[in-house]
Amino acid sequence: MKRTYIVALLLGAVVSLLALFVQLPYYVTMPGTAQVLEPLVHVEHGDKDQGKLMLTTVRMGRANIAAYVLAHVRPYYELYPMQAIKQAGETDEEYTLRQLQLMEESKEAAIVVAYQHAHKPVTYQPRGVYVMGVVKGMPADRVLQVGDRIVQIDGKQVSTAEQLIGYVRQKKKGDQVTITWKRDGKEETATLTVAPFPQAPKQVGLGLSPMTDYDVETDPPVQIDSEKIGGPSAGLMFSLEIYNQLVEEDITKGHKIAGTGTINMNGEVGPIGGISQKVVAAAEAGADVFFAPNEKGAKDSNYREAVKTAKKIGTTMKIVPVDTFDEALHYLDTLHE
Question: How far is CA 62 from the centre of its chain?
Answer without folding.
Answer: 18
